Every structure is written in C-alpha cells, then in structure tokens.
Fold this protein.
Amino acid sequence: MAKSKKAIEKLEDIQQKGERLEVLINLSKKLRDKERRVAIPFNDFLYTTSSRPENVFRDIFQLFYDMLHYYVPEGEDEYEITSESIGFVHYEASRLFAEDCANPFFADRLFANRIMNLGKNLLQRSEVNYIYLFEGPPGSGKSTFLNNLLKKFEAYTYTPEGTTFETLWRINSAKLSSYKQLVERINDLTKNAASADNLLADQIYSSAHNRLLTQRDIDIACPNHDHPILQIPKSYRKQFLEELIPDEEFKHKLFNTKAYEWVLRDSACIICKSIYDALMDDLGDPLEVFSMLYARKVLFNRQMGEGISVFNPGDQLIKEPIYNQNFQTLINDMFQTDTIKYIYSSLAKTNDGVYAIMDIKENNIQRLKSLHGVISDKVHKVEFVEEHIKSLFLGLINPEDKVHYQGIKSFEDRIITVKIPYILDYRTEVEIYRNKFGDTIDQVFLPGVLENFAKTIISTRLNSKTSAIKKWIKEPEKYSNYVDSNLFLLKMEIYSGNIPDWLDDEDIKQFTKDIRKSILVESEVEGQQGISGRMSINVFNNFYNKYTREGKLITMEDVKSFFIKNSTKVPHSVPEGFLDSLEQLYNYHVVQAIKEAIYDYNEQQISRDILNYLFAINFEANTSVVCPYTGEKIEVEEEYFESFERLILGSMAEREHLIRFRDDQQKTYVTKTVSQEMKLNGKEIQETDQFKNLFDRVIKNLKENAMAPLVKNDNFRRAIQDFGTSGFNTHDNRMKKDVNFLIQNLKSKFNYTESGARQISLYALDRGLL
C-alpha cells in the first residue's frame, strides 16, 4: 500500500513537472516568435516585397499613421447633421492611451481629433520637416500622454502588423580578396618559416585569422536603420520596382504619392554606400554583392534608445560620435581599405524612428535648439561624415517655456504646436473619475448628476470671450431655460459632438460648416486655465466623501450646494449664474426622461402617418392618391396637411410657418430622400434622414402632452410614493399600471434604480416641473 502511494505521488510529480515544462515551452515559443530577429536574405526579402508591398514600404511617418489606426478604429461622425462634414468625429482611443497602461490617459473628442489629424498629415507628407510640440498647462497630462503613446508605438512594432525592415550586411569573408591573400600569406609562412619566423606566423594568425578565418560571416548592421530597398542604386530603383511588383494599383501609389516619395528619393547612408562600393570593387559582380545583403526586423526599444529615444531635462547632452575601434579595425582588415568609416551619432539610433523631448527645460533647451538644422535640412555632420536624418521629432512644452524659441523666425517655422489642454468633454472627465474611484461611483449618483459635476469643473476652463458660438446663436435669451449667459453648456455639447434637442430648427439650420469650423478653431485657446486635471481629482474626492451616504443617492442639489458652500476651497471659481443654468438644464432632461418613460403610443401608426404625409406633399390639394408605402388612400386637403404639421410645429404655429415647413419637406423629399438616399444608396424610406427626423419630432411632441392627465390627478404622487410598499395595492388598477410603467421605463431606459426612479419622479412633481 505504501509503495502504491509513493508510485502515485511520483506520477503526480512527473505530471506536474510535465505541465510546468509545457507552460515553459509555450512561453518560449511566444517569446521566440515575438522577440527574435531572423536575418532574411535579400532575395527572400524581395519575394515579400513583391507579394506584400504595402507591409514592406513604410517609413516612420507611415508607420506612425498605421500604429494610430491599429489601436483606434475609424471614427463615427454622428456629430454631423448635413453632408458637409468637417471631420470632427468620435474616435474610441482607449486602446491607444488607456488599456494596459499603468497610468491611463483619457483623450477627449477634441484632442483625439488632433492626434488623428496629425497622423493624416504625416501620411500625406504635408508636415514632415517639423518638430511637434504638445503644449498644455501643468496638470493636463502631457507626460502621461507621451509615455503611453510611445509605449503603444513600441508594442505595435513587435506585432506582425508593425514590422518594418532595416539593412544588415552579412559579409562572407571567404569570398573577399583579403581573405585569399591572408590564407596564401599564412601558408607561405607555415611552409618556409624557421623557428624565428614562427613567431611572426603566430602573430599574423592570431590577429587576422581569428577574425577572418574562423568567423566566415561577419555581420555589419546599418546604424542608421536604412531600409533594404535603398541599397538598390537610385538610378536603377524605379525600373527595378516596376519589374518586381506585379500590383499595378500599388505601383501607381508608389510612384505618384507623397507617402512613398522616399522610396525613389532617399539614398543609403554613407556607411552602407561605402560597403556596397567596396564589395563591388572587390567582387565585381552585383549578384555576389546582393548575396551578402540581408533584411531584418527593426528593433524599437526605448530603454536601449534604439528606434525610440526619450530625453528628460536632466539628461546630459550627447556630443561625442559613437565609434568602435576594434570593429573599425576588423572592417579595415576585411576590405583592405580605410574608406569605410563606421562612425555615427546618437541621432542615427532614431533615424526612421522617434526622437522625443519630454520638457523644454534645462538641457532640453539646448537639445531642442541643436535640432534646428537637422529638422530643416535632414542633415547632420559627424566629424567629416554626413548623416541624413529622417525622424519623427516630438516634444512636450508648457506655455511659459515657448520663450526659448520665440523670436527666432526660422526656428518657429519648423515647430508645429498641438494643443493638449485640460479636458473639455464632460464625458471624458467622468471617465477619469471612474478610473480613479472605480466604476461603482455611478451607483451613488442619480443619473446625470455625475456628468453635471464634470460640467461644473469644465466651466472653469472655458473662455467667455469666444465669439464664434455667439455669432451662431443670435438670440440666446430664448434658451434661457437651457443654457447659461456665456453659452458654456451649449459649447460643452458641441465639444462632445452632440447637437442638443432643445435647439430650434432655425438655429440648427444655421449651424453651417463655417460656423462649426470656427467653433473648433476657437477651441484651440480653451482649456489653458481653470481647475487642472490633478486639482479636479482632489475636488471630486472632497465632494464624493462629503455627500456619499448610506441609502441616499447624490443629487443635483448636492452638486450645487457643494460648489456654493465651498467656493473659497475650490481652486477656481465657477462662472456666475452657471450652477443655476445647469440646474435648469438638468430639470429639462429630467422632465424629458419622465415623459419618455410614461409615453405609450402606437409607433407603427405614427410611422404610417409620416409615410402618407411624405407622399401626399407632392400633390395639390383636392386630390385623391394611394400611398405606395402604406397602400392607404389619402384625401389630399389643406386640413390634412395642417393637422400633421401642427403635431410637429405646435397648435399655435402661423399658417406661413406651416407652408414654409411643407415646402422644405417636399424639396428634401425630392432632392435628397428619393434621388440620393433611396435611388443611389438603396435605402428604404424608413431608413432615410428625413423620415427619422420627422419620426423623432412627432414622438417628441406627443411626449410633451403625455403627462398632462396624470399630473392633474392627486393620487398620482401618492401612488409613486407608495410604490414598492403594501400601500401601493390600495390604488386603482389604472393608476398602478401607469406608475409601474413609469418606474420600469426609468430603470430600463435611463439607468435609474427603483428608489432613484421614485426619488426623481417626486422631485419633478414637487417642483412643478411636469
């Protein structure tokens, strides 16, 4: 029995060791596949080039663009209300800046568009001879942004999608004349040497034989990370690629677009060119030369300064060139010439890579200035050797540090500033709170209240003197129930990509492409003041700790009370009247939610009414027609038109307003709905913008009147108060049905808890909002 037990234990031990070995093998395979850099013979590399040229022909600017789109999917332009897009889209950038990052960075819509537009400009080569300085006030998250960006860029280069190639020379020393001469020399000395000569033979053998005889293949890496295709002489390169690449569509892009201009324009670095020339002089056969040319995956390693170098203000300036005397001697011995100078600067390590300066202070001031000529001309001198540098130069700067280059016109012209201000999108500000305090914080707030806290913080960051939004809204007083005197609440919605539903038709129509552009231009000067990102966390922490109570949700009244009572403790004051306006807008949304929750109409019939109307407006009054969308017969009369139009425009609308609305709808139906969306795009009429717009407006109007019968009933409030208790059963069935419908819809459609739904319904009734 004891032997059996020991045998079982031994088997279990063997099994556990086997499992651990299997885990180690799996890890080894993953590391090998990801980390190793196998040198590829140039001929094999050309096969890859022929079959997948898009993956092969990428410089740093194309690679950066591809990296952005690897992590960030194509944006959605739900912000646009017309076909005149200004490209202000919603980008989901969390994979780039937040996921798997120890210290996440949250990009609002404005900044996400800036960074994605930067990628587009780099791809189009409209802005490549520049350094990009990300400018923002202290506490805006600049360092976090750049560290996360570079971390994800480095990680991307280790994926199959992020692979790029560099030149490696693998010299077969046995084919060189120097090798043959050395062998002959040693053989002669070995045969004829007396004992006195043996010492000379040993010296020759030890100094050269060990390097050239025993080490047949000697690797010489290009320190400038030259793309292998650059080793094809420039004068032959286009014809060579014409014959190599079968894809005609790609070849057209390769030879005619700015993104690939470097393929035909750039030359190999002086080290590679010298090696090529020396091999040609020695071997005389280009095929023999190219047999020693290899391609390998570029290693981007920030810690080693390979491909990515990041300099902090205290880092010492690197002035001395990088030089290896032993390796230089080997090259000289191998080629029997001193024309190959294996010397380069630290800039070569980030050639076709990223060179980043964290802050323009201390040593980084001089470091920035020393880049002037390199950025302008892409040329750098290392002793007598000329380097051609093409890197993506990035940097961080505080507004006050711009004095270090202001006034130097030639330098200013080479700097592009990308603003990275405090967050101006309240949804993103909320994401920061959730990240710091946990996703569960939503559970202690009534819906919308957490967002209102964020809006209050953001109100301190906005400028009251921006004119574009005031030029657009010519009569702001008509929105006094929804917006503050500075129109900050409207501006916040625009910055978040939202067109508020309380804007009237005329102002929506005036929200033209030019107006939208001018508002976004003015956003460049916003967010440079007010409560910083770091301060915001502290303010929210104080608020959260003060108002979080067992069994009670945080309300809008709590937010208002906190900022009024603690005005001296909040670092920057909230604009006068903003909190009152915010409360009014909150009340509006509460009312809309309650009306939506109590709304119970036949939407199928509403849809049929809209379809009949859209068809009928194409005919004169006193006409009978059959609608092809519903099959229903319509008696087209003026009364028919007016009854539908007043449902949308209101019972008090002037007749001229009704006719103008009708004409606009008929024009849209003919020129856009039928001609473009249905005929060209193949949409069903229910999928068109016009139908959706009318449907939303009808529903909105019906909801406005949905509460009227219930509000006048005194039992309605008592039934809400009794909901969830035994007293609820004392109410009549109709009242119980209506209240239950209201509570359940508030929960399912607007994320209220049951107690929160009761609380907000009583809040609206007691304040006379309904």
